[in-house]
Amino acid sequence: MQTDAELVNAVLDGEKQAFAVLVKRYERPVRAVAMDVLGDYHSAADVSQEAFVKAYYQMARLRKPEAFGPWLMKITRRCALDSARRKAKEPRLEIKAAAVIENPDGQLDEDKQRLLAVVIKLPKVEKQVVMLRYFGDNSVKDVAKIVGRSVGTVTKQLSRAHKRLRNVLSETEAEL
Amino acid sequence: MTAEEEINKRLEELAKAIPPDETLVKNVMSSIAAKPIGESSRISKSKNKLIIRRFIMNRFTQFAAAAVIILIAVFGLTFLNKSSAPAYGMTDALEFISQAKTLHIRGWRVQRYGTPPKELKLPFEDWYDLENGRYRRNYSMKLSDNNEIDHSSDICDGEYIMSEGRYKPTGGQWHKTINFEKVDPAKRINIKWLDWYRKLRQIEGFHKIGQDVIGGESFDIWEGEFNSGIGDNIDRVRLQTWLSPVTAQVGRSKTWRKKDNEDWVQVSEYTTIERNVPLPEGIFKTDPPAGHEIKTAKEDATVPIKQERDIYEHTQFGYAPLNYWVEPVFHLRDGSLLACWQSVDAKESRDQSELFKGLRVGGDLPKLPTEIFALSPEPNVRDMKFIGYHLAFTQKETEKGKRWYEWSLYIPDKEPPPVNAVLDYRIHYKLNVNRTEDIENSVKQIAIPDPQEIRIEEDFTTFVLGAMAKRSDGGLVPGHVNYEDILRLAKRLRKSLAQ
Fold first, then answer.
1. Which residue on chain A is closest to B27 by alpha carbon?
2. Which residue from B339, B333, B331 is spatially nearest to B471, judged by alpha carbons?
3. Which residue of A13, A108, A162 is in closest CB contact with B4?
4. What angle do CA B63, B67, B69 make, to 5 degrees?
5. Counting beta carbons within 10 angstroms of the beta carbon of residue B5, is it exposed (0 to 12), middle (13 to 18) or buried (19 or more)?
6. Is B33 on the interface with A (CB under 8 A)?
7. Which of B85, B351, B387, B412 is deepest in the core (most CB within 10 A)?
C-alpha cells in the first residue's frame, strides 16, 4: 500500500492512475465532510467530485505531499460552503421539493448528523485517521501506512479522537 | 459495552450510512482526463490577466492604472534596454514537448563519408503518434560505392516495426530488404528516447543568445553546450533552439559537434518541429513495398534481443579478463536506482556462490571481481553519487556456465538532479582481485544507458520482477523483493546516508 505522499508525487509525475487510488481512498471521508455542510447525499456527491477535480489541478501547490488528506478535506469544506451559499440564493421551495422527490433517504438521522459534526471538528490529524479508519474501511495498520506514521502513533491518535468524541458527545447529548 | 466500544460502534454505523459511491472515481477520472495537471498554472495565469483587466477597466482606477503603466514602461525602457522578459523559456518548451500527442519533425542530417571525410546533407522526416506508440521515420543515405542516394523508412504500427534495409552481393546490384520485428511493450516509443529531446534535457546549460523571426513570428534563440559519448569517444555538442516566448513553440533547432580542438561542424538542422498536428492517412501502415526482399516476414517476427538490450542494456566494459555487465538499470519513483550487474573473472574458475553468502539486504555489496560501488549522473552539477547497497541476487545456468546476478539499490547521497536533466549515468567500480597486473585503473567511470523508469507497482512487477525472472533458473524471483519494501528500505538508507 502506497502512502499519500507517494501517490501525490506519482500524480505530480504524471501518473493519473495514482490519483484514482487517492480518490478511492478519500471518497467517503470527502463525502462525509461535504455532508456535514450540505446535509444530503446528492449535493455531497456533486461537491465531492468538484473537490477532487479541484485538488487534482491544484496539486502542484501542495507543499507537503503527506498533508494531502487534511488539505483535500479543507478544499472539500470550501467547495461545500460555496455550494451551500449558491443554494441559499436559489428559491428554497424548489430545492426542498426536489430533494424530497429525488432523495427520500438522502439525509442522515439526527444522531448521526451530530456525530459527524463532532468528527468534522476534530483536530485535523485525528480527523484524518478517524476518516480513513471508519469511512475508508482501513485497518489501523493500513491507516498507518497511508499517512506514513507508525501503528503506535495512529493507535494513540485514534484513542485520543475517541476520547474527545466521547467527551464532546456526552456534553452535547446531556444538553439535549 | 464500554464507552470505547460504544463510540467505535457509533462511528461504524455512521460510516455505513455513507456508503461507497462507485461512480465517483469514474466521474472524477473522466473529468481530469482531458487536461494534464501542468495546465493548471497556465489557467491561473490567464485568470490573473482577467483580474488585471477588470481592475484597469474600473473607472475609479483608470487614472492610477495609467500612471502605473507609464512608470513600468519608463522603468522598462530605461533599465531593461527595450526588452521584456519572455513568457516561456526552455523549461516550458520541454514540458510542452513532453506532453505532445503527435510530433512532426523535418530537416536534414549530415552523413560523413570518404577519406578525407566529406559531409553530405541528407533530408529526413519523422512522424510520431506518441499516444499509440506508432512512428514513421523517413531518411536518406548515400550508398557506399556510388553517388546514389537511397531513401528508406522505418515504420512502427504499434505492434510491428518494419525496417527497410539494403545489401549488395559481390559484383551484384543493390537489393532493398524488409525486416519485421515485434514491438517490445517495454520499448514502446517514448518521447524521452528521441535523441533531440534527450539533448534538450541538458536544460541547466542553456542560455538565451539572441532573437530571430521565422514566418512573421518572433523567436528567442537558446544555446547550450554539453559532452556526448563515453570513454575516450567524447564529442562536444552545441545545440541552438528557436523558441517562441509567446507559445513555447520550437521553430528550429541546429546541432554542431566537435572533437577536442577541431572546428565546429553543423551536423543537423530541424527546420520543422510541429506538436499535435493531424497525422497523414495511412503513414503507419506496415505493408512491405513491392520489389523488396523479405528477410523476416511479419508472421515470423519476434521481439529481438537487440531491442531488449536497448532497455535492459547489456554492456561489456572493463579490460580482459575482468569483465562486468550492467543489465538492466531502473529509476525508482523516490529517485533511487536499482541496477543488476554481474562480474566474471576469466582467470578464476571457482563458483561465485561463496561471494553471495551472508549478504544482508541493505548491507555491503558482494565482493565480485569488479564491484560497482556507485553510480553518478552526467552532467553531475551537484557533485553527487548513488551509493550501492545489496538488495538481492539471482542465478542462472547459461551456455557459458552458471551466472550470478547482483541486484543493488543505489541511493543518492545528495538530492539527485531531475530525471530530465540527466543524460547518462556513470559507473564507479573497484577491483577485488589480488593480481597486480589487474589493479591499475581500479576506479573508472563508464556510461550506462538511460534507466527504465518505474513509477507504479505495475511497472515494478512488469520490468523489475520480469527482468529478475529472466535472470533466474526457473524464473524464480527472490521472495523479499517487493516495491513498497524497497522504497521503504531506500528511504531508510537515504536517511542514514544524510546523517
1. A49
2. B339
3. A162
4. 115
5. exposed
6. yes
7. B412
The one-letter amino acid code at B157 reads D
What is the distance in angstroms between the Cα of A124 and the nearest Cα belonging to chain B? 17
Using a CB-CB cut-off of 8 Å, the residues of chain A touching B27 are: 49
Q: Smallest Cα–Cα separation from B188: which of B4, B476, B462?
A: B462
CATH number at residue A170: 1.10.1740.10
Domain spans, chain B: 36-84, 96-275, 312-498
Instruction: Inspect the interface and report whether the beta carbons of A28 and B31 lie closer than 8 Å.
Output: no
Q: Which residues of B touch A45 (CB under 8 A)?
A: 21, 24
For B2, the closest chain A residue by CA position comes to: A166
| A53 in reach of chain B (CB within 8 A) | yes
ipTM of the complex: 0.79
How far off is chain B from A1, nearest CA to CA, in Å?
7
- Residues in B closer than 8 angstroms to A32, CB to CB, are 14, 18
Helix axes A110-120, B3-16, angle to 10 degrees: 100
Cell readout for A101 is: 422527490
Which range of residues forms the domain containing residue A123? 4-175
CA-based nearest residue in chain A for residue B26:
A20
Which of B253, B251, B257, B290 is closest to B269 using CA atoms?
B253
Cβ contact A23–B25 (<8 Å) = yes
> Under a CB-based contact definition with an 8 Å cutoff, are residues A147 and A66 in contact?
yes
| A162 at interface of B, judged by CB pairs closer than 8 A | yes
Q: Which of A134, A155, A171 is the mutation pick for testing B, counting most B CBs within 10 A?
A: A134
Retrieve residue B260's grid coordinates: 577536442
Cβ-contact A11, A3 below 8 angstroms: no
- Across the interface, of A2, A45, A56, the residue whose CB is closest to B37 is A56
In which residue ranges of chain B is pLDDT below 70?
1, 33-87, 145, 184-187, 192-193, 198-199, 201-205, 228-234, 303-324, 379, 381, 420-421, 423-424, 434-450
Domain count, chain A: 1
Reported as a single tens digit per residue, the pLDDT across A106-125 is 567 777 888 888 888 888 78
Write down the CATH number for the domain with range B96-275.
2.50.20
Cell of A78: 470550501
Triad B237, B240, B243: Cα angle to 5°: 150
Residue-wise DSSP of B80-115: STT----S--HHHHHHHHHT-SEEEEEEEEEEEETT
Q: What is the pLDDT of residues B455-483, one digit of tens each?
A: 788 888 888 898 899 889 988 888 889 89
